[in-house]
Amino acid sequence: MKFEAIAVENIPLIHTGDNLPSIICKNLELQDRDIVIVASTVVAKAEGEIFRLEDITPGKIALEMASRNGKDARFIQAVLSRSREVLVEKPFMLVTTLAGHTCVNAGVDESNIEDGFLLYPPVNPDASASRLGQELEKLSGKKLSVIVTDTNGRAFKIGQTGAAIGIYKIKPVKHWIGEKDLFGKVLEVTEEAVADELAGAANLLMGEGAGGTPVVVIRGFDYYCGEKTFIKEMYRPEEMDVIKKGLRCLQKKLNKKLN
Amino acid sequence: MKFEAIAVENIPLIHTGDNLPSIICKNLELQDRDIVIVASTVVAKAEGEIFRLEDITPGKIALEMASRNGKDARFIQAVLSRSREVLVEKPFMLVTTLAGHTCVNAGVDESNIEDGFLLYPPVNPDASASRLGQELEKLSGKKLSVIVTDTNGRAFKIGQTGAAIGIYKIKPVKHWIGEKDLFGKVLEVTEEAVADELAGAANLLMGEGAGGTPVVVIRGFDYYCGEKTFIKEMYRPEEMDVIKKGLRCLQKKLNKKLN
Predict the structure, then answer these.
(1) How would you classify the pairing of strands A34-39 and A215-219?
(2) Do B5 and A201 touch (CB under 8 A)?
(3) Which Pfam families match (chains A, B) (predicted)?
(4) CATH for A188
(5) Which residue in A84, A105, A242 has the most chain B C-beta atoms within 10 A of its own C-beta, making it the best mutation to test that interface?
(6) Domain interval for residue A192
(7) Which of A168, B18, B51, B208 is the most buried (most CB within 10 A)?
(8) Is there a single domain that holds both residue A203 and residue A163?
(9) Which DSSP string corresponds to A150-190?
(10) In the predicted model, is pLDDT for residue A210 greater than 60?
(11) What is the pLDDT of residue A189?
C-alpha cells in the first residue's frame, strides 16, 4: 500500500481569468482517481478575488477594532466582510468565515500579491473545487477528486499546516463507526480528517515562498467518491465546540475590562 | 518534485520487548534519508507501557472528577498521572501531558489492547524516537529520521489527524523567516508544521481498525537533520496560548457554578 505526492511543475504566475484546469493538464498527465490539490491563492487569483486596499471603506466596528489592535481599519473591514463571528481580536484576528471555516484573518491575504492589494479566499470554496474538478475531468477524461487548500495555524502548537477549505468528489471525513479494533472491540476513535491530511501532505511540496508550487497531485490513494460532498461536514457544530465557548468567555471578560 | 508514502506491510501484533527496528528492517529495505513514521501504540506496546485497570487506585481528584463526568475513576487517574493540567473535564478530558502535548485523555488508550488493560503513550516520546532511529540506522546503515505519532482531534473541526509526538533527526517546524514571497515582500506566514504534516500523510495509510499498518515510510522528501531535535519546539509557549486561556476562563466559570 502506497501513494505518491507529485508537485505539478511550471505553473506560471496566475492572473484573473486564467484557465487553471488547462494549465494543470498541460503540465501533468492526470490518471483515474488522482486527487488534485490546489492552493486557494491561485484559485482566488484566477477568480479575480483581488481587492485594492484603498477602495475599502471601514465601518464603525472595523474602526473601533483598529483603535484597539493597531491594525489597518481597511484590512479589518476586509476580514469582517467575510466573517460571521470574531472569536479573537488581538494579537491576531481569529474568525469564523461565512463558509463556516474558523481561521486567522478569514483567509484574507496580503502575501503573494502586489503591494496595496488584498487577496480574498474563494467565496464558496466547494463551488470553486467543483468548477475545477468538472473542467479537469472534461479535459483529461478521468475520474478525479479536487481539494482547494489554505494554510492554517492550530490550537496549542506552533506552525501552520495545509487544510482543506473546498472539496469535489472526496469525503472530508472518514467514519470508522462500528468498525472493530485489533481485539474485536468497537473503536472509540471513529473519525479521520482525510481531506485535511491530504491537504497537509500536499502542502509539504507547495512551499510558501517565491518557489511556490500551488498544485500537487496525490496518486494511488483511492478515496474517490462519486457523490456531491460538502466541506461543512467537517466543521464542528457550534453547540459541541468547547474551544469556541472558551474563546467567547475570554472575549466577554476582556470587554468587561474595557468598559 | 515528489515523494512516496509506503506502508510497511506484515508488521505482526506487537508485544512487550519486541524488537521493532528489526521487524521494520525485515519488512522494508530502508534508503538514505527515509522518514520512518511509527504509531505510538506499537512503540508503547514494545516498551511495555501496558497497565491493568484494576491495579490503578484513584486518588481524591480522580474520584471527584468521576462523580462529575461519569467516567471510570481508575481511567481518570491514569490520565491525571500523565498530565500537568486539565483544560476540559467534560464531555471529554483535554489535558496537557507531562511532555507538553495537549490532547484528549493524555493519549491513554483503551483501544487496540486486551479488555481491562490500558495502553499509555511513551513517557518520553523523543527518547523513544531516538532509540528507534539509532537502532534502525545501525541495522540499515542508512541516515534516517523517525517520527512517533498519535492521532489527535483539532479545534473547530471534526475528525482526527496524525500528529507527531516524538522525533529523531527531523525538525518539527520549518521556519520561512526572512524569505520572500512571489512579489519580493517578506513573508508573514513563517512557520510550517512539517512533522505534523508528515504524520498526517502517514496516517492516511495507517488506519485505526483491525487492518492497521502502524509503520509508514516517507521517501523522497529530503528533510533529514543531523542534529538533535525536540518535539517541544512545536508546543506553543503558555503565555502565547489564547485558546488555553479561553478554556481556563470557561473552566473557572463552570467551577463557580458548581460551588
Answers:
(1) antiparallel
(2) yes
(3) F420_ligase
(4) 3.30.1330.100
(5) A242
(6) 2-48+121-256
(7) A168
(8) yes
(9) EEE--SSBSSBEEEEEEEESB-SSEE-TT-B-TTSPBPS--
(10) no
(11) 55
| CB contact (8 A) between residue A209 and residue B112 | no
- pLDDT tens, position by position, B88-112: 998 889 999 999 999 999 999 887 7
Per DSSP, the residues of B4-60 read EEEE---PPPP-TT--HHHHHHHHS---TT-EEEEEHHHHHHHHT-EEEGGG----H
Bridge partners (DSSP) listed for residue A104: A94
Give the pLDDT confidence of B69-82 residue by residue, as tens digits.
889 999 999 999 99
How far is it, in rounded angstroms, from Cα B98 to Cα B124? 9
Residues B139, B30, single domain; the answer is yes
Q: What is the pLDDT of residue A254?
A: 86
Question: Do B6 and B37 sit in the same domain of this protein?
Answer: yes
Identify all chain B residues contacting A172, using CB atoms and an 8 Å cutoff.
159
Predicted complex ipTM: 0.95
- Candidate from A188, A205, A246 with C-beta closest to B1: A205
pLDDT of residue B90: 87
Domain shared by B103 and B208, yes or no: no
Find the CB nearest B111 among A158, A185, A196.
Answer: A185
Our count of domains for chain A comes to: 2
Burial (0-12, 13-18, 19+ Cβ within 10 Å), A135: middle
Query: Is B189's pLDDT higher than 70?
Result: no
Domain boundary among B119, B135, B166: B119
Average pLDDT over residues A101-124: 89
Is B21 annotated as ligand-binding? no
B161 is in an annotated binding site: no
Does one domain contain both A230 and A245? yes
- The nearest alpha carbon in chain B to A113 belongs to B183
**Record: contact A156-B111, CB cut-off 8 A:** no
Q: Give the residue on A whose Cα is nearest the Cα of B214.
A: A182
For residue A110, pLDDT beyond 90: no
B92 and B163 fall within a common domain: no
Residues contacting residue A232 through CB under 8 Å, at least 6 positions apart: A99, A100
CATH number for position B86: 3.90.1660.10
CB contact under 8 A, B191 and A158: yes
Residues above pLDDT 90, as percent of chain A: 81
Please give the single-letter amino acid code of residue B116. Answer: G
